[in-house]
């Protein structure tokens, strides 16, 4: 008996010592001695694993930390010392300091999965800016106008599929439907049969399963499956590239990528990769290689399908809670003559010009993305010790800029926890400038999202068609939300859908 007690006491003492040394190490040895500032408040948890278990198990992990420490605090999660910041002042300092103070820091296995030539979202150095220009070319400007009728068509047919089902788990359905929509818009409308589309979707699900997991490439493990998924997706995108004659513009992202050009200094990385076409270009430019087109198309597909599904689900949630907002949207559609006179349910063909006139719908999207930003926060590695709010964040640490907590708690938004699209209606350009870093659902600074215009247009069209075509009741109007991989309701948001009835047929 005595042996058991001695053993238990020894384990407890050893454990206590290990924790004390762990905390001491972080408080005293990790600090940058050249900077005369303390580390931010906060706790580093257990030796080696830090507070990772708490993060995984406690849904309100970050909320509790914010309540206790405010806008800046330290912790240790996912194998790294981390400082989390939630005020616009700190967030803007970090995001504007890209490449000087901080840089994007993504685990090696994710970088490899994202592409052989280097995905834009993990790329650093001189290749990043020219490739980002290519993304902008493909996802905004003239291309947006071309995407508009296709977006309306795919959104409408997807909603009609929801209406057939009636009782649905919104997030699950939207993930599937939005993946199909994104693939049609980005990879091409008729390039793949339904069965092929299904295989691409399954491959993408396997791929995304590896984004927040252990990095082991062992058969059966997520990273191994993700590699398999990535190969499948590459083979289909390769097929789409091959089926695209140089001169034909199919109006999808692949066609635009094949026409895009990069400066010559952005040399291809893989020797055996080939340039995609030989059309004459200015001497200092070159076409993207086949592999670069593949990587860019795959990245657009993943980014679009994952974040917009979250935003669409939040639109269903918030408009489900606020019938009065649906009525106002319908009124705006009526004012602009967009509801077809014959039935009051179908929407006229939309164009980018028509969409820019719908100010209230734009405010609704903005408010949804403020209150429920799909990407809750962004990660950066500190390149040189950062000084923020009287604290130091040592070189090598990770900084998380929380978008969600900042947008929800910012003092500049009156009743910031409430859904109120009107708050955006009368914001002057001057105020808009001041609010630049208070509301950043698409990030900010050097790495701001190049797909934001594409996403905003898709979300606008989704909102218009949803409100015009559908009625819905939420089974659980106040679901618990999970933050990873993007913000989503834990119960997938069960709801009962029915077609919206024309007011002409039912004047009562
Ligand atoms: C509602 C939808 C979307 C949201 C909320 C969103 C949000 C974001 C955020 C917050 C970032 C910055 C990440 C960082 O700073 O580390 C980002 C980057 C990025 N997004 Fe989006 N995004 C959306 C849709 C899209 C779409 C539709 C595409 C492409 C089709 C896209 C492609 C990208 C890419 C390639 C980057 C990396 C940019 C870089 O590192 O320079 N996103 N997005």
Description:
It is a single chain. The chain has 508 residues and is α+β, with helices and mostly antiparallel strands. It has two domains: 73-103 and 376-440, Uridine Diphospho-n-acetylenolpyruvylglucosamine Reductase, domain 2 (2-Layer Sandwich), CATH 3.30.43; 112-375 and 441-499, Orthogonal Bundle (Cytochrome p450). 49% of the residues lie in helices and 11% in strands. The chain is built from 18 helices and 14 strands. The strands form five sheets. Strands 1-2-10-7-3 form a five-stranded mixed β-sheet, with helices on both faces. Strands 4-14-11 form a three-stranded antiparallel β-sheet. The chain is globular and about 85 Å long. The model has no long low-confidence stretch (mean pLDDT 87). Bound molecules: protoporphyrin IX containing FE. Protoporphyrin IX containing FE is lined by residues 104, 120-121, 132, 135, 139, 299-300, 303-304, 307-308, 311, 374-375, 378, 441-443, 447, 449-451, 454-455. Protoporphyrin IX containing FE binds at residues 104, 120-121, 132, 135, 139, 299-300, 303-304, 307-308, 311, 374-375, 378, 441-443, 447, 449-451, 454-455. GO terms for molecular function: heme binding; iron ion binding; monooxygenase activity; oxidoreductase activity, acting on paired donors, with incorporation or reduction of molecular oxygen. Keywords: Heme, Iron, Metal-binding, Monooxygenase, Oxidoreductase. It comes from Lingula anatina. This is Cytochrome P450 26A1. Belongs to the cytochrome P450 family.
């Amino acid at each position: 008996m005595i042996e058991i007690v001695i053993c238990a006491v020894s384990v407890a003492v050893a454990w206590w010592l290990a924790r004390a040394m762990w905390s001491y190490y972080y408080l005293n040895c990790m600090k940058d001695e050249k900077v005369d500032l303390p580390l931010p408040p906060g706790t580093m948890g257990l030796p080696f694993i830090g507070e990772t278990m708490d993060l995984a198990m406690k849904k309100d992990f970050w909320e509790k930390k914010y309540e206790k420490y405010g806008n800046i605090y330290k912790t240790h999660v996912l194998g790294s010392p981390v400082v989390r910041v939630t005020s616009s002042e700190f967030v803007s300092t970090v995001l504007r300091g890209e490449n000087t103070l901080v840089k994007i820091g993504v685990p090696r296995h994710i970088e490899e999965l994202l592409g052989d030539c280097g995905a834009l979202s993990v790329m650093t150095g001189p290749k990043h800016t020219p490739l980002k220009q290519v993304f902008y070319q493909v996802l905004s400007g003239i291309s947006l106008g071309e995407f508009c009728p296709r977006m309306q068509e795919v959104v409408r047919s997807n909603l009609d599929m929801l209406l057939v089902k009636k009782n649905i788990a919104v997030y699950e359905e939207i993930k599937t439907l939005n993946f199909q929509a994104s693939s049609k818009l980005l990879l091409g409308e008729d390039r793949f049969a339904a069965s092929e589309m299904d295989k691409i979707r399954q491959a993408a699900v396997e791929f995304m399963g590896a984004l927040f997991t252990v990095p082991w490439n062992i058969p059966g493990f997520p990273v191994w499956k993700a590699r398999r998924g990535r190969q499948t997706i590459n083979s289909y995108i390769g097929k789409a590239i091959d089926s695209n004659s140089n001169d034909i513009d199919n109006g999808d992202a692949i066609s635009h990528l094949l026409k895009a050009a990069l400066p010559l200094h952005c040399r291809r990385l893989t020797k055996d990769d080939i340039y995609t076409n030989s059309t004459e270009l200015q001497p200092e430019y070159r076409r993207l290689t086949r592999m670069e087109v593949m990587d860019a198309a795959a990245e657009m597909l993943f980014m679009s399908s994952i974040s917009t599904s979250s935003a669409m689900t939040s639109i269903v949630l918030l408009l489900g809670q606020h019938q009065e907002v649906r009525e106002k949207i319908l009124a705006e559609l009526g004012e602009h003559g967009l509801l077809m006179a014959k039935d009051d349910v179908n929407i006229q063909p939309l164009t980018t010009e028509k969409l820019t006139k719908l100010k209230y719908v734009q405010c609704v999207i903005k408010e949804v993305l403020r209150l429920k930003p799909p990407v809750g926060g962004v990660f950066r590695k500190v390149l040189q010790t950062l000084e923020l709010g009287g604290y130091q964040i040592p070189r090598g640490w990770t900084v998380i800029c929380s978008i969600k907590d900042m947008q929800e708690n910012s003092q500049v938004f009156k009743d910031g926890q409430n859904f109120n699209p009107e708050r955006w209606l009368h914001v002057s350009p001057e105020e808009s400038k001041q609010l630049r870093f208070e509301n950043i659902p698409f990030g900010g600074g050097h790495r701001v999202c190049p797909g934001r215009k594409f996403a905003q247009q898709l979300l606008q069209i989704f909102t218009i068609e949803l409100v015009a075509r559908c009625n819905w009741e939420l089974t659980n109007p106040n679901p618990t939300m999970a933050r990873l991989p993007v913000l989503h309701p834990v119960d997938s948001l069960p709801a009962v859908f029915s077609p919206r009835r024309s007011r002409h047929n039912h004047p009562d």
